[in-house]
Fold each of these.
Amino acid sequence: MQQIIIYTPMPRSQRFKIYIPYNLKDERTWLKSQNTAFYHPQQRLWSLVNTPENKKLVAGQFKGKYTVQTNESQTLNQKPIALNEKICEALAQCEQKFILKSFSQSTIKNYLGALTYFFSFYKDKVFEEIKKPEIEAYVYHLKTKYKISDTKQNTVINAIKSYYEHVLGMERTYYDIQRPKKSKNLPNIFSKEEISKVISATTNLKHKAILLTIYSAGLRVSEAVNLRINDIHSDEGYLFIKDSKGKRDRKTILSPILLSVLRQYYKKYKPGYWLFEGQEGGKYSTKSIQQILRKAIDISGVNPWGTVHTLRHSFATHLLQEGVNLRIIQTMLGHSSSKTTEIYTHVLSINNKIVKSPLDFLEKIDIFEQKTDSIQQKPSPTNAI
């Protein structure tokens, strides 16, 4: 059964969008009845005014029936295509080269998907002879017709870049094309209270262990499913992350509380090789973890826009709040650049309980209008402010 998709709005966006599958008539009728509802026929999406009240209303109405996506990827509108022999051969060449270069499975999947549509768009041309203006024209077509996100645009460009550079061995001039301006969005986080509610709402021991591991160690979901039993170094107090993003190994913190939970989990489920295994063996799926968190969010009623990656963002932000050195957090997250980690400093709460304004340090300053003998001022109520 297809699920409803609620798209996270861009910063300062006036509306947020919702995709409702055609067969969910009752859900569509309800949304249509809302005061600010509007249908976007080109995108096949609904939208409501972007307010906390509307977000909570939609999350409550569609509880258990929706997922959250962080961008408005319009691949829903792209029709399935028929692959001819030339396209199949080109895709096979790409897959072989990407595997030999040890690209991750998710990268290979995303690149092959992007190249499938690219080759189809220029199916009547010789792929080796496609020039930069034609590549830019294709990206422009995706942006204007399908309204692809900046992330999707970069994936398409990187896929085409890899084809001409790695598969065909051509010069950089073939893929040195315009990229979107990098956005500076702040990461979405759970508060400490929300983390507690999410964990408490998870009653299954395996599910609780998974969410605790991701949050307490700052893991990506792909890193969580790839954890092996031998990666738990209880004596030294760390988790070993093998081949994380960028093919880098690293260590991150192993909480004593998490270790206690993992020991209970191990006694009950007795995994063989992977720390978290599916019902039929093998790695636990990332989709299942996403569903676990979605269910916990629905039950606990916390931030409905949270995703599994929000747990990782929360890990970094909460450590900063506790005064942990930024360099240590960078190492545990596996960031190659400190600039990537520094974004979490912008998420920290700013209020007059934490930071004092320079105004508070001034002395002998006349703030209010001075009284005069000729004008009798009325006393203001004590609770006026």
Amino acid sequence: MKLGERREHHETIGSTNERARELAEEGAEHGTLVTADEQTAGRGRQGRTWVTPPGVAIAASLILREFDDLLPLRAGLAVADVAGPDALVKWPNDVWLDGRKVAGILAESKASQWAVLGIGVNVAVDVSALPEDAAEVAGSLRRTPDDVEPTLTALLAALEKRLGQGRESVLAALRERDALLGRRVRWQDGEGLGAGIDESGALRVDVNGREITLSAGEVTLSAHL
């Protein structure tokens, strides 16, 4: 079944990921899509919220029965494909355009049974209308509300392609769109310079001439892109 061939749409929902998890547990097929015009309790990484104003953004969650450990990065690439040639993937789960965050990704899984891939994209969001903490970093594709559905259609097609792509090709594409390469980054235990993506999809960081890798966790830029 193609991604999104089965779709459950809501005018308003708390979290598309929560609904998709319920459907996954009930046995929903690979590719089942949950979308909403407005999301009131969307979740991001580290327990953060993801604001989805009505009618101007993609709030979508896919149920996948076939996936690998590169899933969040594959999704980031798919969003970047749709966002345009200047869009960058900020490891591990954001997409940036013109130095601002235009999309967030949250992948959750239950062993090898299922994964729920949540994607939020600011298609036509008026950033100035967002809460202050979100407005500081948020950006938009600067399209119109009428472009939300066509952008979702394009995203599903791009994601289908990226999910079927070999690891080496995915990693090569990530390296071309690496938002952190050569930039000073911080994480809970330290600070260093982004030094690329390794063969496992982990972030390489140069810490005073010594290279380490980060396989998970929150990474922030010392200054905006």
